[in-house]
Every structure is written in C-alpha cells, then in structure tokens.
Amino acid sequence: MIKLFHNLILALCFWMLISQVNAQSRLLTIDECYGLARKNYPMIRQRELISKTKDFSVENAAKGYLPQVNMLGQATYQSAVTEFKLPVAIPGVEFPSISKDQYKVYGEVTQAIYDGGAVRTQVKSHEANALVEEQKLEVELYRLNERVNQVFFGILMLDEQIRQNELLKKDIQLGITKVKALIDNGTAFKSNGYTLQAEQLKADQRTIELNANRKAYLDMLGMLVNQSLDDVQLVKPQSLTLSGQINRPELRMYDYQSRSLDIQDQLLDVKNRPKFNFFFQGGVGRPALNILNNGFDPYYITGVRLNWSLSGLYTRKNDRLLIGNNRQAIQLQKETFLYNTNLTLKQQNADLAKLEKLLDTDDEIIALRENIKITSAAQLENGVINTNDYLREVNAEDQARLNRILHEIQLLMSRYNLQTTLGREVE
C-alpha cells in the first residue's frame, strides 16, 4: 500500500512537472501571429456583412422571375363623353348617357417571358460587386502583416539585447573579481573597483530599460492577436526563399473591379433589348369594358405585351465612354501601385544586400574583440592596464555583438518585409 501511494505521488509530481514545462514553453510563430491578428481585427466582421448583402441582393434580383403584382386605381372627370344621337326620335328607344366622372380600380399580374437577360445580368452584377468589396477588405487586412512584422521582430531584437546585456554583466563581474583580488593585495586602488561597480549598475539599468521596452512591445503584440503573451516564447523565424513575382491582394482587387465594369457594359445591352411578358388585368370600373353601361362592372383583360424602350439608345454611346474611362482609371491605379511597389522592392533588396555584407564581417570583428578582451582581462589581473582600459575593450566587444544582433534581426525582418511587399498567401 505504501509503495502504491509512493508511485502515485511520483506520477502526480511528474505530471505537474510536464504541465509546468508545457505551460512555460508555449511557442508562438510569426505565421500564427498573422492569422490571429486577422481574426482579431474588428474589420474582419465586415466580411459577413458583405456576404449577407450579396445574398440578399442576389435573392431580390432573382425574384424578377416571379409574377409581378400591381394594384392601381384612378378617378377622373372628363370635359366630354361619347354621346349617341339619332336624326329622328324613335319612340320607346332611349340611349344611356355616360357620366363624365369615371372610376377604375384594378390589379395586374405580369409574368416575364423574355426579359433580355436583365435578371441574370443583375445577379452577376451583385456577385461581382461583392467580390470587389471582399477584396477591398482583404487589402485592409493584409496591412496587418506590416504591423505584426514591426512588433514581432522588435521583441526578438530586445530578447537578443537582453541576453547580450547579461553577458556584458558577467564580463564586468569578472573584472570586479580580479580587481578585488588586486585591492586585497594592495596593488590596486579601491576607485578601480568603484568604476567597475558603476558600470555594473549601468548594465542593471539597461536590463530594466530593455525589459520595460519588451513588455510594451509584448503588450502591443498581445493586443494584435488578442491573447495574453506573458508565458509565450516567440519562435525566431527561419530564413525565407523569396520569389520575384508580385502577388498582392491589390492586384486581385483591380481585376475584380475590371470584371465589374464588364458586367456594367452588358447591362447597357440588356437595357436596350425588347421585353415580352404575359399579363392579366382584372378589376371594376365605371364604365368597364362596355362603355354603354354607366354602372360599376367587373372586367378582365389578358394577353401578351411587348415593351421596348428606345430612350437608352440616346445615352448608350456616352455610357460606354464612361465605362471606358473608369476602366482606364483602374488600369492607371494598377500601374501606379506596381510602380510604387517595384520602387519599394528595389530599396528592400538593396538593404538586404547591405545587411548580408555587414553580417559577413560581424563574426570576424567579434572574434577579434573577444581575443582583445581576454588579453585585457589577463593584463588587468597582472596590473598592466587599469579598469578604464579593461572596460573600453569590454564595451567594444559588447558593441560588436550588439551590431551583429542588430544586423541579424534586421536582415530577417527585411526578408519578411520583402515577402510582405511581394505578397504572401493568406490563411
């Protein structure tokens, strides 16, 4: 029984240890940040509104195939009416007189037989407009990637600087240990130790500053992805393989806008086509169809009706010219976007080439500075140099490492910015 209880305690401790490790090692990649930022952005809810608007509009347009019902009524007064007069009076024969005030109330049902493609083209127009609006939203959402890049890589930069600052503090502590031994032996002044302690305090202040900046950046990233990131470790992205082809959502938006204009052009043709429909009209009037009856009578009329409006031919030429102007405007916007994007790409490619060259020499500089620092530490221990000389070499190595950190993160961030400029698939 005791052994079983002991095994249960060990299993519980092991499970708690595993849970703690998992909780502390929750990883977050930049691709996950892209997706979470999109889902959390308030504008994303507009996608559902666009979809509903399209569905309602298409459904309403499709109801043009259903019978159309109209209720009408009129009351008129005429200055003259039809009269029946004979040249001689016939005894016992009297023709009815028609009232000058006349009334009619009727309903009419029409069913389209041929609408010239009006309903079908209107449905296509609503669908095309919805695609344009959705792509405009996609363009807005895509801009979030730039914000994520700035904040994400800013945190990675601060993480590297914090780690480097800890290495600097170790070097300063090493100097303090060596100088303390010299002071104890009476071969160095206490002021030498005070100088190193002051530098150590400055490094502590730097740690406080870097941690505060990291928390601010982490809070911004947490707001973008709508998560608490206190226990999250950001995964440093790998280098990217970039293609030279621009694949931005703006280009698809221009294409959808052009397609929408094509459908508007089709609507011009539809507008000028003849329409045929079946109709049934029924109601009550005074007089009704029999004008000789001056009382209220029901009536109905049914048949086929042709409706061909030619007034659209007056403006057809100018309407097509307007559509052509809009198409040219879209093309100009597309060309301007590509021009500006290519300028940005040239600058980003130049920055990439510069950073790659700088990074190639950083390791050599660090190796040289590290050797100098090690030599200085030995010289300090032997009293050949003073603490200021030692700190100068320590700070020089620290600056060399900071430069490498800066160049490495900048290079990685530049690659992701370049990928964002070129366009990336959205999940």
Automatic annotation (TrEMBL):
Molecular function in Gene Ontology: efflux transmembrane transporter activity; porin activity
Keyword Membrane annotated: yes
InterPro entries named among the record's database cross-references: OMP_efflux, TolC-like
Signal peptide: 1-23
One Gene Ontology CC term in the entry: efflux pump complex
Annotated localization: Cell outer membrane
Keywords: Cell outer membrane, Membrane, Signal, Transmembrane, Transmembrane beta strand, Transport
Tagged with keyword Signal: yes
Pfam family, one: OEP
Top-rank taxon: Bacteria
Record-stated family: Belongs to the outer membrane factor (OMF) (TC 1.B.17) family.
Protein name as annotated: TolC family protein
Native species: Dyadobacter pollutisoli
Lineage: Bacteria, Pseudomonadati, Bacteroidota, Cytophagia, Cytophagales
